[in-house]
Amino acid sequence: MRLGYTSPCMNETERLERRLLRDTARAIEDFGLVEDGDKILVAVSGGKDSYALLHLLSRLRERAPIHFDLVAVNLDQGHPGFPAHVLEEHFRSVGVPYRMLRQDTLTIVKRLVPEGGTSCSVCSRLRRGILYNAAVEMGCNKIALGHHRDDLIETLLMSALYAGRLMTMPVKLRSDDGRNVVIRPLAYCPEEEIAAFAALMRFPVVPCDLCGSQPNLMRKRVKTLIAELSAEHPAVKGNLLSALSRVVPSHLLDRDLQKRLGESAGPDPWLDVEAG
Ligand code: SF4
């Protein structure tokens, strides 16, 4: 799935597509996300990220040296005015096999989350469960989600700042019940490139506020912080992503990790920081 360099005569859409395909192919290779014979459920919510995910995986499928299948799946969670037909028309027009699901999780979320609270974590947990079951029922061995580079770095900071844990969304993870493997092929793709590409492609984006949920203020704050830091130093986002793949375990305070590492010393990261 290796891709060549961008030609100067390409238009903006082609240029962005090329870059996003390259980043997606790199994540797939680095983490072994797609294998011969896979049948992948692509979760398409109607947002720019999941439309882009479906597009990029379809394009890679056309040129991949291995065979894998894709099934686009949308879940209508019962939000008032959710235009499921828009997604169905899109799936038809791009010629991808698809399945439309409908399950009213909104009522459950309303019952569980106090008025004015942020419903997203309950809502996505319910959605994930439904998608896991659908994947098994449809014979899909993997579920692809549209989280991108900015989701990963925001989650890293949120986890460190508000939960005291150094972690982010996994790029590849077997679900707790062992029935599914969740993959995030857009892990290296910058959100701004996905947004620009989605606009140029005129994906029929469905607004994410139909549920009436309050925005997650912590995520918003972290997003703003990263944007401010990036304005001062444009490499900040890329550096945060790199930090996730250049961990120096011997210089962290995780005692279990230390036990596993024994006495072995790692490189001195201060040298890198000072040099950077
Ligand atoms: S924005 Fe609404 S639909 Fe989306 S995850 Fe949050 S609660 Fe669910």
Structure description:
The chain is built from 11 helices and 6 strands. The protein has about 280 residues and is α/β, with parallel strands linked by helices. It has one domain: Rossmann fold, CATH 3.40.50.620. β2, α3 and β3 form a beta-alpha-beta unit. The longest helix is centred in the first third of the chain and has 20 residues. The two termini are about 30 Å apart. Bound molecules: iron/sulfur cluster. Iron/sulfur cluster binds next to α5.
Poorly predicted tracts of residues: 2-6
**CATH level 4 superfamily:** HUPs
| Percent of sequence in beta strands | 5-15%
User: How is the biggest beta sheet arranged?
Assistant: 6 strands, mixed
The rough form would be described as: globular
Layout of strands and helices, then pairs:
Elements lengths: L11 H20 L7 E5 L4 H16 L5 E8 L7 H11 L3 E5 L3 H7 L7 H19 L3 E3 L4 H15 L8 E3 L6 E3 L7 H11 L15 H16 L3 H10 L9 H7 L7 H7 L1
Parallel strand pairs: 1-2, 1-4, 2-3, 4-6
Antiparallel strand pairs: 5-6
Bound molecules: iron/sulfur cluster.
Iron/sulfur cluster binds next to α5.
Task: Spell out the key features of this protein.
single chain; 276 residues; alpha/beta; Rossmann fold; 6-stranded mixed sheet; 50% helix; globular; binds iron/sulfur cluster
Briefly, what is this?
This protein has helices at 12-31, 48-63, 84-94, 106-112, 120-138, 149-163, 191-201, 217-232, 236-245, 255-261, 269-275, and strands at residues 39-43, 69-76, 98-102, 142-144, 172-174, 181-183.
